[in-house]
């Protein structure tokens, strides 16, 4: 699902935060897991989650060789009789499955009553045997990347390349089988973002390995690549503006009618410097657009583009307030963001898999830089340059017969995608549908919906589960029938109107589009917070996606 920028340090995985040893489960398909206490990141609020470190081969082609540990967590069904097991696969690649534990009382609540929820931590990530660079990041990024790779390759040899999707899929096949030793239950595999590639790979190596598969925000196995990121984001921005034109309030406030018109105005601003005193440069705007599109903050992104297109003296003050909050540290200081959890993401696993398995369609650095010269959403130059260096260091290191090959199986499958998903765009879904083999493999598209359908598809009835969760639950309960998609008619959809509090904090005026702003200092924002604490808390959902990167 979201990209994390974390400090890379060597981690030891010996104990939980309370000092208790994590229980181990021997490599044996015919013995049940040895469940015990979870590390802090995997502890559920009610304390019912249990965990184990499952031993399994580093190289599945040499099962008698070196073993690694992979964390498995289990949240047992609240009812006396479980209807089955749901296995949850996190995205990234490199993201920790601890994310799912945080959702047990919210998005995943519809499943906790009658299903056991399992999380498999990807090999190399989090509390599983963890891959991380031991050398500190230095200004010479090329040297840093090479040293990191060389150190890890010296430690692991070519076994370093066993931290891949196919091996993780075999891990999943093994733990699903092991979970059925004492009590056979049907198994359902849910993957989100990169987790969908993991689930598809599972279907390749174990075509009858589960009763059904759910793919949320689907990553195509081929004819796709991470180098297309910038192009996909700008295509999604075009779709977002089309929705704005269909929304009476948004359309009436927007002062441009097309991306081409806006690009011409931005070129005048950033090249001819026709907007005096503006702190935003093109790359800051491009990064803000990435954040706004990937994290559903259109209520800030659209007014920002509107103000840039007009760029009068009031707009300069408002935009500089936003720039100060997002890019100069004011927002992080006010929100007091905690330090990133080093267990939450593995950059090494991310780089290995991205540059060897999500790299089928490539763009060279020159082409990407040329594209970004006038694009509205792009990675900053320094990030694209680092990606270019990482590709040279980590790419072309391994392959296997399943890489860049479509899934082919007969398990019932539900694929979900939003039509405003820039990370895994719905325009690629035909690549998935072409691999469907029967009528029980289905695709459902949700309008005005971003990445991670299960978690973002809220309906107007706040008391119910998300639409994605409703569809998935309906599918699991009858995998042979078309799931009920009636909730799509009740989606909240896009929000083009920021709250008065969010607008005041970020732009200096209660109206994000207009008004005479004041220059916002930390003192001013704290006074706003004290004047209406409840409204400030409600605005967290707007603030946090813009600063937590």
Structure description:
It is a single chain. With 549 residues, the protein is α/β, with parallel strands linked by helices. It has a domain at 227-339 and 495-546. Helix content is 40%, strand content 10%. It is built from 22 helices and nine strands. The protein has helices at residues 98-101, 109-112, 141-156, 165-179, 194-205, 229-246, 248-253, 259-271, 282-294, 298-310, 313-327, 330-335, 347-357, 365-371, 381-394, 429-433, 453-456, 467-477, 500-507, 522-531, 533-538, 540-547; strands spanning 24-25, 50-57, 67-75, 84-89, 115-120, 187-193, 212-218, 413-418, 441-446. A nine-stranded mixed beta sheet has the order 1-2-3-5-4-6-7-8-9, with helices on both faces. It is globular. Belongs to the peptidase S33 family.
